[in-house]
Task: inverse folding
């Protein structure tokens, strides 16, 4: 393919400098979950960066400007697109990068470039924008079913409040025990909170952002931000790490200015409520719990201690740690919207978490991300090792 | 032959300069989507740059070789400024003893890196570009050391050659001996191949620290 479209065109300065900064040392390979289960070096982070440098040279070097762009092999481009979309965007490579490249943002930007060239998104990812436009969620499920199947009876939702709760699409449609737990815990704390009606609580934009389909994002972000602002919201609470990451890191960019409210992960709000006595956990739980840090919560926005504070506040609990935890945690396989497309990788990666939890003799594997919840549960089907999987708020709600 | 070396000198410098300018233009044209940096994480970021802190965290064994390599490379480079100035500035003169010691450390650190990567860690991933650069730097540093210890060369003619090329009044005679010529040709071949991270890695390291310390969910 001979293309005049610049490969550098849709990258920001930080991404371009990140691509140039890679030393090809290969240290990141030790932490890449896709490498761990596929062993395919062609999809490794340094190889993707090396290849993309070649693409930039082909369209943006002096030679390309004077004599025309170099021909790029179609297969090479397709293989590159597959490698970029096969990634779970967990950011472990960037966390362990010797020069600190922000790969959790770089990979989605390279995906955007592939989408611009018609080489992405992959499989069902292409349906996301259309589904969101029609139904408000990426799964194309009816908006009226967003809350009713799981929202607990007896929990009050205020019309207006300084605090709002955003359930998110994956929680609401695919990991309902998790969001039911959120609502029950919020209800128990007793601080009034508001929610948007189901037809207005649309997708936060993360699935489109992560798959490089950015066209509708500005509209979505403005719609949601203005809706919460109009209800007097000062703090927006959410339990989905991907939504929280999108809201705090990307929304201000698409909104064009600072958001009119703060974003908080639900474990932050709950940990504060436990500290100031608004939530008391009285029931005992004599179990060994192992907590898995979601990539977009720990590496993404640095929420590491609060979930542990919440779990330690449960009487009788013994808290275990994965070998790789906190910012160094290993992806569960569900990230980067790759779980539905590269299903086998996701299952194999998810089983690594299950195996370690079983090896450490945990009674429960505690998750705090709807995508992890959905995929790790799926990974356990047909697997020879078993551990009870519970979301952190689902667990707390059981003990109220 | 002398004039061919002068032409190589200019070509090498021109390619390096062009590649550098091209990169800066590319970065300059790109939009900056992230908010302005501020100063958070600056001090720890600078420490990361000077002491290669992130490498130390992920691979302490390799860190020894890499840190000594980078420091000795800079010192050797600064020591060679003696051939680029007339009169020689006092700080360049002051750095000479350190540069001499660095001249021994440089090949030793490269050998260490080589052994660590290939014999101790037995890496699966191999960048041929890195391997080529390592071997090239090893050849340059070893030839430089041999020039200092065994096959002495005429440094006056070497300086005349460099100064002549720099002032666009090239000397036609070949400087030094065969080993010096080999050393110089390898350096001229290395200059256009210098990795781009020498410009960008300090930036990404500072940015990484800023991101770590920003923590948007913990702001009031």
Result:
């Amino acid at each position: 393919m001979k293309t005049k479209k610049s490969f550098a065109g849709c990258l920001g300065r930080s991404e371009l400098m990140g691509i140039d900064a890679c030393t090809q040392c290969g240290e990141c390979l030790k932490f890449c979950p896709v490498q761990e289960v596929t062993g395919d070096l062609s999809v490794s982070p340094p190889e993707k960066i090396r290849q993309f440098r070649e693409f930039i040279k082909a369209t943006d070097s002096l030679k390309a400007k004077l004599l025309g762009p170099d021909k790029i092999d179609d297969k090479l481009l397709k293989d590159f697109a597959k490698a970029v979309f096969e990634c779970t965007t967990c950011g472990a490579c960037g966390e362990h990068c010797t020069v600190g490249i922000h790969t959790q943002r770089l990979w989605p930007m390279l995906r955007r470039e592939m989408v611009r060239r018609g080489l992405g998104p992959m499989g069902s990812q292409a349906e996301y924008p259309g589904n969101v436009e029609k139904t408000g969620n990426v799964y194309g499920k009816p908006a009226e079913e967003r809350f009713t199947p799981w929202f607990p009876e007896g929990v009050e939702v205020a019309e207006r409040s300084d605090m709002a709760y955003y359930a998110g699409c994956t929680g609401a449609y695919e990991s309902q025990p998790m969001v039911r737990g959120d609502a029950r815990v919020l209800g128990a704390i007793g601080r009034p909170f508001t929610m948007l009606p189901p037809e207005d609580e649309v997708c936060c934009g993360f699935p489109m952002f992560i798959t490089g389909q950015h066209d509708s994002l500005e509209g979505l972000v403005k719609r949601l931000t203005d809706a919460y602002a109009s209800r007097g919201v000062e703090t927006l609470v959410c339990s989905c790490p991907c939504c929280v990451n999108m809201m705090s890191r990307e929304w201000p960019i698409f909104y064009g200015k600072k958001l009119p409210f703060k974003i908080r992960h639900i474990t932050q709000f709950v940990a504060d409520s436990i500290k100031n006595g608004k939530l008391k956990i009285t029931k005992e739980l004599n179990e060994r719990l192992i907590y898995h840090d979601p990539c977009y919560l720990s590496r993404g926005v640095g929420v590491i201690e609060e979930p542990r504070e919440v779990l330690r506040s449960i009487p009788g609990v013994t808290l275990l740690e994965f070998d790789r935890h906190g910012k160094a945690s290993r992806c569960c396989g569900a990230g980067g919207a790759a779980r539905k497309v590269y299903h086998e990788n996701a299952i194999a990666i998810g089983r690594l978490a299950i195996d370690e939890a079983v090896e450490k003799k945990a009674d429960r594997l505690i998750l705090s991300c709807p995508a992890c919840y959905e995929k790790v549960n799926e990974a356990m089907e047909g697997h020879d090792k078993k551990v009870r999987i519970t979301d952190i708020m689902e667990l707390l709600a059981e003990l109220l | 032959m002398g004039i061919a070396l002068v032409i190589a000198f200019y070509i090498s410098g021109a390619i390096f300069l062009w590649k550098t300018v091209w990169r800066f233009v590319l970065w300059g044209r790109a939009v900056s989507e992230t908010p302005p940096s501020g100063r958070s994480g600056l001090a720890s970021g600078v420490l990361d740059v000077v002491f290669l802190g992130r490498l130390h965290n992920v691979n302490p064994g390799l860190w020894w070789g890499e840190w000594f390599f980078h420091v000795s490379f800079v010192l050797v480079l600064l020591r060679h400024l003696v051939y680029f100035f007339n009169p020689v500035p006092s700080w360049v003169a002051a750095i000479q003893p350190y540069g001499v010691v660095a001249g021994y450390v440089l090949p030793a650190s490269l050998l260490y890196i080589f052994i660590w990567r290939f014999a101790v860690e037995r890496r699966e991933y191999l960048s041929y570009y890195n391997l080529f650069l390592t071997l090239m730097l090893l050849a340059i540093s070893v030839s430089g050391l041999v020039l200092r210890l065994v096959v002495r060369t005429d440094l006056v003619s070497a300086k005349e050659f460099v100064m002549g090329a720099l002032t666009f009044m090239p000397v036609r005679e070949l400087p030094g001996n065969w080993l010096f010529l080999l050393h110089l040709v390898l350096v001229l071949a290395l200059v256009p191949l210098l990795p781009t991270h020498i410009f960008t890695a300090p930036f990404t390291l500072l940015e990484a620290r800023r991101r770590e310390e920003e923590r948007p969910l913990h702001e009031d």
